[in-house]
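Figure-free illustration: sequence to structure, shown twice.
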Amino acid sequence: MRFSVTILGCNSALPTSERNPTAQVLNVSERFFLVDCGEGTQMQLRKNKIRFTRISHVFISHLHGDHCFGLPGLLSTLGLLGRTADLHIYGPSDTEKVFGPILAFFCRDMKYKVCFHSVDTDKSELVYEDKRVEVFSIPLTHRIPACGYLFREKEAERHIIRESLDFYNIPVKWIPLIKKGLDYVSEDGTVIPNSVLTKPSAKARSYAFCSDTKYSEAIIPVIKDVDLLYHEATFLSDNEGLADMTFHSTARQAAEIAKKAGVKKLILGHYSTRYKNTDLFRKEAAEVFQESYLAEDGMTFDIPNSGRDSEF
């Protein structure tokens, strides 16, 4: 099953002709999650052929315009498309306070319900789960309350070895327990180890989204060992002082977080428009963490189910 991230926008506050403000779509086994919703998001969804109706959960990191100004337009469009299924929006405590009146004024005749869920930006906690995925908040250090999100697949049950079950005449009623990892115990007390009857399932995959934030090692325990990390890199090290003052990070700092957290891959994004050559971000980060990649609008990053390295 697929686990992938499509970049809809990777720039900071000011959009350019090539890059839109922050927005991403995460596909976890055909469950589509919209992460941030900067201006132009619905146009980017169309360009990338992502059906609006597939999105039922939206995660907003913070209430700066370049991360949420696209939300009112998207909500209105969903109403015009005849949506009837509930839409769930997760974000800092003021999210409903900001967007509730907009919905009441512009979208009063919508046939679907918008459900707001307040996220505590001061601690990491489970904010959503279904049978395949869990989503945890990641406290970020920014000028206003902000949080990232960790998407983690749930561990799948072990795979049955049919030939072994037949050989040992395992009763059908035992199969659910064996898939959960239990050994089989026959009526005469004989124990058949689970390792003889099953194979491990594919390793659960994970993705962490961290934007906007100044350098903070406090997030490392939350994102430790994730397969793919998106970490904002608004500035290069030549503007580290400005990054600190505006509560943002440099490409080098993002790489340091990735290295200390032991992540597999790092995606850089949220570039300041003062930089025309984004290759400099990759170069700076790679000096610290080799597996660093640049986000660009329209790019998709896949995490394979097999555990083999993906080709970015």
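We now fold a second protein in the same way, so the two outputs can be compared directly.
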Amino acid sequence: MGIDYYGILQIKRNSSDLDIKKAYRNLALGFHPDRLEDPCTLQVFKLICEAYDVLGNAMHRAVFDQYGEEGLKRGVPSPDGYIQPYHYHGDGMRTYKDFFGTSSPFADLLEYYINPKPMYDLPEGRGFKKKQPAIRHTLCLTLHEIFFGGVKKMKIQRLEYIGPEQGKTEVKEKILSIPIKPGVPPGTEIIMPEEGDQNPTQTPADIIFVVEDRPHEHFIREGNNLITQAEISLEESLLGTTITINSIDHRTIRIPITDIVCPNYEKLVPGEGMPIVDQYSEKGDLIIRFNVIYPKYLPKASKEMMEKAFYMAKIGGGHNQPEMINKMILADKILRVDPDEQLPPF
């Protein structure tokens, strides 16, 4: 079963923060070791202080409400990462002193509650509110969402005021609409101002979403460019082929490969990458990298024919003679034209 911290403080599970503080104050004063001489008092006092240390902390209380003492002290996973196990430091007097400002049980503590300082003497009464630290979340977006942009809906839970007097808060769900610009780069921070927990003495925190690319099946984004890989045979790498690619915006692109595909060769297709942020009409490039699949076996006759082909290329163009190679390619293209379509000689 584990320890029931609500039972120790003798309060209900839906008690407010003020109810928790009142219960702890009464019990801590009543079971203070300097008031009672019973040796069991110290252990009871520590349990009371531990119960307040858990329920007085919003995160610890939320974990305890969902997973109990076992989950709280073992640690649990969360959407933002692993929540570390909770361990009470064991010094009840330290908790008592942090709460009351003194370790003495005989101090005139009621004076502050009976005659509190006027609000205008406090910074909050003069209109000054300290802003809570920003809350950061990772926003994973698909390349499709980044390409088109739009609005991303995210559900959050936060403390909101109850009633017109705004004296109490409770956890409520809220849907945030996050604007996504086409082509937004990874690491971009999208700020939702003051969407954190509401608090009468503090300004709600900003919620910051940090953009991160979700892995895609075929594409990788590098800056504004898209990188993809195509598999071709050795024959296609030497004789040419046509690559068919389905783009992010659901178009079919056919790219002819007429060059010889050598190691580290890349085919660049201008304007088929990701939109450039704030310049939607302009896009990056598509870069195709190749993986050449070699045949596992070649018959002897095929090897002899390839040997003759490479020999003819060697004697016709030679090594390091690009001009001669270009003339051979031009002559080869001319010979491929149908005789009926050839221009008459001058």
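Summary for the second example: Residues 186 and 260 are 35 Å apart (CA to CA).
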